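pasting Cingulin for the record, 113 residues
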Amino acid sequence: MTKSSVVSSQRRLERKLKELNITLDEERQQHTEQRDQLTLRVKALKRQVDEGEAEAERLEGLRRKAIREMEEMQEQKEALQSKVTALENELNRTSINQFLLKTERGICGMVRE
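structre below
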């Protein structure tokens, strides 16, 4: 091998090394950009998860409140139903007593005549 062929080979290898370094730098830059994009995506997804969990907690609170209100209304309904039943019973007793009183007066009036 001659000196010129060695120099030529060396230059060729230096160019190849330079090209490989450029390619390596480009790939590093691409990987860095991809990593940054993925980091942003992960942060966005975490934020969405947090928002979803907060919304789920809010809805669960509303559900519990609705159940409490429904139970209170059921208790009120039962209390009112008891009052209605008591009033109906009292009305029936009063009506029967008035009927008996009228009937008794009618019988007494007939006996006197």
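The chain has one domain: 1-83.
Residues 1-83 form one domain.
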